[in-house]
Amino acid sequence: MTTPITLHLPSAIEEALTIHCNRSGDTFEHVIFRALSDFLDLEHHSLYQISTSGALVEGVYQGCMRVREILKQGDFGLGTFHGLDGEGIMVDGACYQALSDGSVLPADPDYLTPFWVATHFKSDIEATFESVEDWSDLGRQLDRLRPSDNLFAAIRINGTFARVHYRVACKSEPGVDLVSATQHQAEYAFEGVEGTLVGFFTPDFANTINIPGYHLHFISRDRAHGGHVLDLKASNLEVAIDYENQLKLVLPETPSFLRADLSNDPRAALEKAESKR
Ligand SMILES: [Zn+2]
C-alpha cells in the first residue's frame, strides 16, 4: 500500500534535491523514500547478518548477540543459537527456537545467537506455485521468479505441505566443525501440515558469507514444529520474494571467531551440512 503525500519544501532543500536528482538520475520520490527510511531506521532491500557461513563451517557457534537485539533489525529471518542449539525462525516479528527433540519454543529474548540473517520483509514479487515436486523443483521455480543470480533475496512461502522433511541441529561442543556437528542432527518428516517457509537466496559469489543458493526454515502454522528444510512436496504455495541489494554484516568479536581460520572455501562443507544426504 502507498500513501500519497504533498510536500512544501523550503527552496534550499528543493534546489539541493533537484541538483542531486539531475546528477544521479534518482527520482524525487526515491530520494524522499530513502531519507525517510533512514530517519525511521527502516531499511528496505537490506539484510542484517551476524557472522558468516564460513565461520559456522569452522565450528564458531559461540553466541555473540541477543535475540532481542536481532528483533530490532528485522521481522523475518533465520539463524541458530549458542552452541548450534537448534534452528532459529523469525516470522512476523516473532522469533522461535526449534529444538532437536522436535519441540518449538518462543526464543528467549536473552538467548545468544552465533549466526543470524534478518530483514524487514516487504514483497517485491508474488506468485502461486501450483505444484512443487521436491526441493530441486522448488529451486527451479524460484529461479524463474528472481531477476538475477547476483542479488540476495528473502523468500516467504505459505501453504499446506503434502510432505515436509527437515532437520534440527543438535547442540554441539564448541570447535566441532559443521559437517561433523550435523552428522548427529535430528530429522523429522510431516505430511499434510500447514505452515510457512522462511529464508533466503544467496548468490554463489557470497558463499563465504552466507549459504549459497536457497536456505529455508519451516515453521508450522500452529508454531509447534519447525526446522531446516531438506525436502518437500506441496501444491498451491503462495510465494513472496523481497530482493536485497544491501548487506550489513556484523562480525563477532568472540574469541572463537577471532581465532578461527576462515581462509578455506566453505562450499563443499556447506553443501554436505545443509542439504539432504
Ligand atoms: Zn538452516
Radius of gyration: 20 Å
Mean pLDDT across the residues is: 93
Which segments are poorly predicted (pLDDT under 50) over 5 or more consecutive residues? none
Got a strand count? 14
Span between termini: 43 Å
Neighbour order of strands in the largest sheet = 6-5-4-3-8-1-14
Sheet of most strands: 7 strands, mixed
Q: Name the shape in a single word.
A: globular
Question: Can you walk through the features of this model?
Answer:
This protein has 277 residues and is of the alpha+beta class. The protein is 23% helix and 38% strand. It has helices spanning 11-24, 28-39, 53-57, 67-70, 135-145, 178-181, 255-259, 267-274; strands at residues 46-50, 65-66, 76-80, 87-91, 94-98, 104-106, 112-113, 115-119, 125-132, 152-168, 186-202, 213-220, 226-244, 246-250. A seven-stranded mixed beta sheet has the order 6-5-4-3-8-1-14, with no helix packed on it. Strand 3 (76-80) and strand 4 form a beta hairpin. It starts with 10 loop residues before the first helix and ends with a helix. Bound molecules: zinc ion (ZN). Residues 78, 87, 215, 217, 228 line the site of zinc ion. Zinc ion binds next to strand 12.
Question: How are the SSEs placed, and which strands pair?
Answer:
Blueprint: H1 11-24, H2 28-39, E1 46-50, H3 53-57, E2 65-66, H4 67-70, E3 76-80, E4 87-91, E5 94-98, E6 104-106, E7 112-113, E8 115-119, E9 125-132, H5 135-145, E10 152-168, H6 178-181, E11 186-202, E12 213-220, E13 226-244, E14 246-250, H7 255-259, H8 267-274
Parallel strand pairs: 1-14
Antiparallel strand pairs: 1-8, 2-7, 3-4, 3-8, 4-5, 5-6, 9-13, 10-11, 10-13, 11-12, 12-13
